[in-house]
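Mods, move this if it's the wrong board.
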Amino acid sequence: MSTEPATGQMTNRVVQRGLWFEEFAEGTLYEHRPGRTVTEADNVLFTTLTMNTQALHLDAAWSATQPGFGGQRLVNSMFTLSTIVGLSVSQLTQGTLVANLGFSDIAFPAPLFAGDTIYAETECTGKRESRSRPGEGVVSLLHIGRNQDGVVVARAARATLVRRRPVD
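Not the wrong board. Structure tokens:
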């Protein structure tokens, strides 16, 4: 309980945070909402900020002549990966993450285009207490991104170092 400065009355406060190590449950699928509709500007900005000059992301006229994707430019796959991880932050790791330890098994089984909406979900695939860092644990996650039709557009395994719940 705290006192609200404007009214002088007592109020309850809840600060949004991610999950402590103890709160992650192996085999649980966490759905992250809302989704994120990707714009052409998102794709062009991310692609140019990261110095990725791939014409499949930037050149509409050239892309229109290419087979395979209906003449559309593809959304940069690193933007897709960043977005599915980003969509998980407020629910899973905000304020509780110590570090990303690594990504593996990254795949983009279907394309993402400007105008598509991406939804993310994360499965906790394992966890263990850290052997070298007391008060922390390693959590293994599988991030999955789906478009508005439920088609998987990205998948990545991720190892994270997460704080344990503080002891009072």
